[in-house]
Specification:
Helix content is 31%, strand content 17%. The protein is of the alpha/beta class and 407 residues long. It folds into two domains: 68 residues, DNA polymerase, domain 1 (Orthogonal Bundle), CATH 1.10.150; 301 residues, Alpha-Beta Barrel (TIM Barrel), CATH 3.20.20.70. The strands form three sheets. The protein has a ten-stranded mixed sheet, with helices on one face. A two-stranded parallel sheet has the order 2-3. Strand 4 and strand 5 form a beta hairpin. Helix 1 packs across helix 2, helix 6 runs parallel beside helix 8 and helix 9 runs parallel beside helix 10. It is elongated and about 70 Å long. The protein binds S-adenosyl-L-homocysteine and iron/sulfur cluster. S-adenosyl-L-homocysteine binds next to strand 11 and strand 13.
C-alpha cells in the first residue's frame, strides 16, 4: 500500500521552520560568490580560496546543514558563519512512498517579500542500477500544454538557485545519500552506489524560462569538487524554447530532452502552444546544432501517447522522417490522466505498434512505465499544494486510473 505522511504537525520528526529569513543561505552561491561573501565578513583574502574549498566540501560533499560540525574550521569562524548565514533545508510538508518505491516530497519554501510560501513537488524514481530525481524549476508554468496538469496552474514564480539545489539535497538527506559525518575528513563520495545517480529537470515548470537559475544550479550539481553528478546524468527537458536550447548546450552542457508530442505544426500548435512561437523547423534546427550529440549522447524526444490524437502509424512514420539525421531516442510516455484532463491514454496495443514501428526504423523507443501513479507522482501530474486535489477529484482520478489499466 502506498504510504503518505502529512508532516505539517510533526515538527518533532523534522527540523521545521529553519529557513531563517534574515540569514542568507550559503547554498546556491557559486565558488566566486561564496569567496566574496567570506571576504565580506572579514576572512583575509589570502585565506579565502582555501576557506571556500573547505566550506564547499562540507556543503556539497558532506551535505551538512550545521556549521558546528565543520571540524577543520576554527570555532571563531564557525560562530561568525552561523551568526550571519544558514544552511537550512526547506520544510518537508508531506512525504509519499508509492507501492513501486517512487517517493514524492512536498517542500515548502518561504517567499521573502510576499510572505506567502510556495510549495513544490520533487519525485525520486528508483530503478535497477540507478535512481532518478525529477526536479522542478518553477512554481506553476506560463505555458499550457493541453495534456499537462502543471500547465493548468499559472506561474507563481521562478525557483531560486538555492531552491533548485535544495531539492537534490533534501532527497539525498532523506535517502541517506550523503556520507556519514564520522567518515574521515576528505572522504570522497563514491560515484557508484549513489541513491540519486541521475537528475532530470522534468518536474514543474519550463526550465529554459528560468535559465540563469537553472544554469547555476546545474553547474553546482555537476561540480566535481561537490555534488559531482556527471553532466551525462543530468537531463534538461524543454517544451521548445529555441533560443535557450542553444545557450543550454553551450553554457550548461547537459543532456537535452525535447517534449515533442506532435510531428506537424498544426497539431503541435494545439498540444504544445509554444510551437506557435518556435515552430518545428526551428526546433529541429536547434536540435541538429546542439553540441556534443553523438550516438552515445543522444537527444531524447518525449512523446505522450494520446488516444486518437497523435498515436497513428502515420504519426510514427512522420516522426521518423522528422528525426532523420538526429541522434535521437524516443521516450513514449503513456498519458497520465488528471481530473479535468481532456485526453485519454492510447490503448496498449496501439502504443506497442507505434513503438515497434519506430524501433524498426532504427530508433530506440522505450515505453516509459508509469511510476508512482498511486501517489500522483507521474509525469504531468505534479501541481503544488495551493491547488491540490480535493478528495472528490482524487476519487475520480483513481476511477480513471483503474479504467486506464484495462485498455
Ligand atoms: N516543461 C518541461 C519540463 C516539465 S514536463 C517540458 O515540457 O519539457 C516533463 C515531461 O512530462 C514533458 O515531456 C511533458 O510533456 C510530460 N507530460 C506532461 N504532462 C503529462 C501527462 N499528463 N502525461 C504524460 N506526460 C506528461
Ligand atoms: Fe509547462 Fe512542460 Fe507542462 Fe508544458 S509540459 S505546461 S511546458 S510543465
Amino acid at each position: 500500500m502506498a504510504l503518505s505522511v502529512d508532516l505539517t504537525n510533526a515538527s518533532e520528526r523534522l527540523q521545521f521552520n529553519n529557513m531563517i529569513p534574515n540569514r542568507k543561505s550559503l547554498i546556491g552561491l557559486t565558488h566566486e560568490e561564496l569567496r566574496q561573501v567570506l571576504i565580506d565578513i572579514g576572512i583575509p583574502e589570502k585565506q579565502s580560496r582555501m576557506r571556500t574549498a573547505q566550506l564547499w566540501h562540507w556543503l556539497y560533499v558532506r551535505g551538512v546543514s550545521d556549521f558546528s560540525v565543520m571540524k577543520n574550521i576554527s570555532k571563531d569562524m564557525r560562530n561568525l558563519l552561523s551568526e550571519k548565514f544558514t544552511l537550512s533545508r526547506p520544510d518537508i510538508v508531506e512525504e509519499h512512498i508509492s507501492d513501486d518505491g517512487t517517493r514524492k516530497w512536498l517542500l515548502r519554501f518561504p517567499s521573502p517579500g510576499t510572505g506567502k510560501p510556495v510549495e513544490i513537488e520533487t519525485v525520486y524514481i528508483p530503478e535497477e542500477g540507478r535512481g532518478t530525481l525529477c526536479i522542478s524549476s518553477q512554481v506553476g508554468c506560463t505555458l499550457n500544454c493541453t495534456f499537462c496538469h502543471t500547465g493548468t496552474q499559472k506561474l507563481v514564480r521562478n525557483l531560486s538557485v538555492e531552491e533548485i539545489l535544495l531539492q537534490l539535497m533534501v532527497a539525498r538527506d532523506q535517502l541517506g545519500d550523503f556520507p556519514n559525518i564520522d567518515t574521515p575528513q576528505g572522504a570522497i563520495v563514491p560515484g557508484v552506489g549513489r541513491k540519486v545517480s541521475n537528475i532530470v529537470m522534468m518536474g514543474m515548470g519550463e526550465p529554459l524560462y528560468n535559465f540563469e537559475n537553472v544554469k547555476t544550479a546545474l553547474l553546482i550539481a555537476s561540480d566535481p569538487e561537490g555534488l559531482s553528478l556527471s553532466k551525462r546524468r543530468i537531463t534538461l527537458s524543454t517544451s521548445g524554447v529555441v533560443p535557450n536550447i542553444k545557450r543550454a548546450g553551450e553554457e550548461i552542457g547537459v543532456m537535452l530532452a525535447i517534449s515533442l508530442h506532435a510531428v506537424n505544426d498544426k497539431l503541435r500548435d494545439e498540444l504544445v502552444p509554444i510551437n506557435k512561437k518556435y515552430p518545428l523547423a526551428e526546433l529541429m534546427d536547434a536540435c541538429r546544432n546542439y553540441p556534443n550529440v553523438s550516438n552515445a549522447r543522444r537527444i531524447t524526444f518525449e512523446y505522450v501517447m494520446l488516444k486518437g490524437i497523435n498515436d497513428s502509424l502515420e504519426d510514427a512514420r512522420d516522426l521518423v522522417i522528422l528525426l532523420k539525421g538526429i541522434h535521437a531516442k524516443i521516450n513514449l510516455i503513456p498519458f497520465n490522466p488528471w481530473p479535468g484532463s481532456r485526453h485519454e491514454c492510447s490503448g496498449w496495443d496501439q502504443i506497442e505498434k507505434f513503438a515497434d514501428f519506430v524501433n524498426q526504423c532504427g530508433y530506440a523507443s522505450p515505453i516509459r512505465r508509469p511510476r508512482g501513479q498511486d501517489i500522483l507522482a507521474a509525469c504531468g501530474q505534479l501541481k503544488s499544494e495551493s491547488e491540490r486535489l480535493r478528495i472528490r477529484e482524487r476519487l475520480a482520478l483513481e476511477a480513471m486510473i483503474s479504467g486506464h489499466g484495462e485498455n
